[in-house]
């Protein structure tokens, strides 16, 4: 029997591309996109769409019953930078939405959950290079705290109630279709847009700030792969480390200059610098590679070619 999928937060950066991918795999009639508003017309107009408030259990349950949903991808969240401006809102949204879907699975309304975690679960006392799967985690952002606590709850619901919840610690995700919103790694998307529209970018992170990053196509492939993996192959029920590349603003600017010779970058670090400084520079994702054959395809060079080609057509 085919899966019936609900994506909560389908209008966002990752949710939108996941919607298109899952529709291509499972069929338009089996993938229901939802969000709190009509915030992305490409998604809204591309198939079944419902208004769902991730913080309202009744709103999610109504949709689950209406479409006989068995699998939920919970992509709604407040990210690191916005979370520092609205700490309690970030806590409420990120935690209540997770509890709603975990409890739906515990009550057997649904069978399977995907919930994204983040490199933000790590903190200043975490080893910075090749950060291991199991290590010190003392996040200093509200977003990171919600993701770390969320991971503990996912594992708890798996252990105690047999809830099939699967999770990945996404690094910064770079894409050209939908803009990210409110993250610390957003600079790595904005820079390509500004390179093409203005020939100049003012970076809110300093030139040597190295962070783990990934191109959207790899992030979507990883998400599909972990959800398809046989349950008995998954040894981690908190969240898997996941990696593709690491670079600094200076590295990405140099790569862009290979295509746009007179591109200029300047550096004006703001409050996001402190967040970035608390995160790892690179991630050891060998457990994901062993357990479910994870393998990335895009490095900085290949991603930059793709970003500049796709955005070049958009701005032409
Ligand atoms: C953010 O910057 O907050 C996110 C993340 C790394 O989870 N992109």
Automatic annotation (TrEMBL):
One Pfam family this sequence matches? Epimerase
NAD-dependent epimerase/dehydratase domain ranges (all copies): 5-235
Q: Which GO terms describe its biological process?
A: L-threonine catabolic process
Named from the GO MF annotations, one term is: L-threonine 3-dehydrogenase activity
Family, per entry: Belongs to the NAD(P)-dependent epimerase/dehydratase family.
Name by which UniProt lists this protein: NAD-dependent epimerase/dehydratase family protein
Q: What is the lineage of its organism?
A: Bacteria, Pseudomonadati, Bacteroidota, Flavobacteriia, Flavobacteriales
């Amino acid at each position: 029997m085919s899966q019936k999928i609900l994506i909560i937060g389908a209008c966002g950066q990752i949710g939108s591309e996941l919607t298109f991918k899952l529709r291509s795999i499972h069929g338009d009639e089996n993938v229901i996109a939802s969000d709190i508003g009509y915030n992305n017309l490409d998604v809204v107009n591309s198939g079944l769409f419902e208004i769902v408030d991730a913080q309202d259990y009744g709103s999610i349950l109504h949709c689950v019953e209406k479409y006989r949903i068995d699998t939920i991808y919970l992509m709604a969240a407040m990210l690191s930078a916005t979370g520092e401006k609205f700490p309690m809102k970030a806590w409420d949204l990120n935690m209540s939405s997770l509890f709603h879907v975990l409890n739906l699975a515990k009550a057997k309304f649904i069978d399977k959950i995907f919930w994204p975690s983040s490199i933000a679960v790590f903190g200043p006392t975490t080893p910075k290079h090749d950060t291991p799967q199991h290590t010190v985690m003392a996040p200093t952002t509200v977003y990171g705290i919600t993701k770390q606590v969320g991971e503990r709850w996912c594992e708890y619901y798996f252990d105690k109630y047999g809830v099939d919840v699967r999770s990945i610690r996404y690094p910064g995700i770079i894409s050209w279709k939908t803009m990210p919103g409110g993250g610390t790694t957003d600079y790595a998307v904005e820079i390509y847009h500004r390179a093409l529209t203005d020939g100049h970018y003012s970076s809110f992170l300093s030139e040597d700030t190295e962070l783990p990053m990934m191109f959207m196509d790899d992030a979507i492939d990883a998400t599909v792969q972990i959800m398809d993996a046989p349950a008995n192959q998954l040894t981690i029920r908190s969240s898997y480390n996941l990696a593709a590349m690491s670079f600094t603003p200076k590295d990405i600017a140099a790569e862009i200059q290979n295509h746009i010779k007179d591109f200029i970058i300047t550096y004006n670090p703001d409050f996001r610098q402190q967040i970035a400084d608390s995160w790892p520079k690179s991630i050891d994702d060998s457990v994901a590679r062993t357990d479910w054959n994870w393998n990335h395809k895009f490095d900085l060079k290949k991603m930059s070619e793709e970003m500049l080609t796709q955005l070049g057509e958009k701005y032409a």
